[in-house]
Design goal:
Elements (H helix, E strand, L loop, with lengths): L1 H30 L1 H30 L7 H17 L1 H32 L6 H4 L1 H13 L2 H42 L5 H5 L1
Length: 198
């Protein structure tokens, strides 16, 4: 029982962190669109360079001759890192596609939660169904121009984060209520011993 409770608690906090991170990132995209895009490219470039260097060093230090593609993957990561740092405008175009795909997939998963709730006849099933808005914004991000893409991406991320936050809190409340009912049922008298003795 404790392991199940710990699992749901960890899942709740992970979902909350993702939701708040999406909202914060969306605000940054709206307030500082070009700076945010540049920072993302530079951070991605540095991370790719670090990963590539680590892969190359790991290959050279391992002493393996065959069956390892760490050197190739390390070089690919180094090239991608340099590309991110030198040509951030191209990477920014790719980022809009990645954000759009992420929003569409995440919105569809949240929409499925709403469908599952409706099939289970749970109240509040319409809240996840609002993820249709997230899916629509994701499609706009996918096919939009970069001039307005950061603004739309910011709005989409905020909307996605708010929807995920509402869904997480709603499900958390229902799980807590079910746990309280289970505790009352488990601790309550199933058989009246006095009546049995009579």
């Amino acid at each position: 029982m404790e392991s199940i409770r710990g699992y749901f608690k960890a899942l709740k906090w992970r979902s909350l962190i993702v939701a708040f991170s999406a909202i914060l990132l969306g605000l940054l995209f709206i307030l500082t669109p070009q700076a945010s895009a540049d920072v993302i490219c530079y951070v991605a470039g540095i991370l790719l360079l670090a990963s590539g260097i680590a892969a190359v060093i790991s290959y050279l230090a391992s002493g393996r001759l065959f069956g390892s593609y760490a050197l190739v993957s390390g070089i690919v990561l180094l090239v991608c890192g340099v590309f991110c740092l030198l040509r951030p405008e191209i990477i920014q175009g790719l980022l809009t596609v990645l954000f759009g795909v992420f929003l569409v997939i995440d919105g569809m998963m949240t929409l499925q939660d709403g469908v599952d709730c409706a099939r289970a006849r749970l109240a509040g099933w319409w809240v996840p169904a609002l993820a249709v808005i997230t899916i629509a914004l994701g499609c706009v991000v996918l096919f939009g121009k970069f001039d307005s893409i950061m603004l739309l991406a910011g709005i989409s991320l905020i909307a996605d984060g708010v929807f995920d936050l509402i869904v997480t809190l709603a499900f958390s409340k229902r799980i807590r209520t079910a746990r309280e009912k289970l505790r009352i049922y488990a601790n309550g008298p199933i058989i009246d011993s006095e009546k049995v003795d009579d």
